[in-house]
Hints:
7 strands, mainly beta, single chain
Amino acid sequence: xxxxxxxxxxxxxxxxxxxxxxxxxxxxxxxxxxxxxxxxxxxxxxxxxxxxxxxxxxxxxxxxxxxxxxxxxxxxxxxxxxxxxxxxxxxxxxxxxxxxxxxxxxxxxxxxxxxxxxxxxxxxxxxxxxx
Length: 131
């Protein structure tokens, strides 16, 4: 019996303002990353942070590009996808990304959070969104 599950749920902060781009097939795409603090750290050491690459498509990409800013807290659900390519110098490159299926904006960055109440919006690309 096979039991293959590739689901990841991660919460963290955007590391930069998202930039909306178009793929060669015309789909909206955002490549970004989030900073996630590790749960445990050794006594006397600073808390460690991991930086995870994200790929958002279509409505999720448009949502994050429109409403997301550096420092905003996001909760994302997606799948881990490794990929590889050969760069211009002929060297093999590797990357592991989270392809996002759902994104929830928990709150804005600290500068905006003092001016407005926290925002919680969710987008799931099920084809029923008005935009």
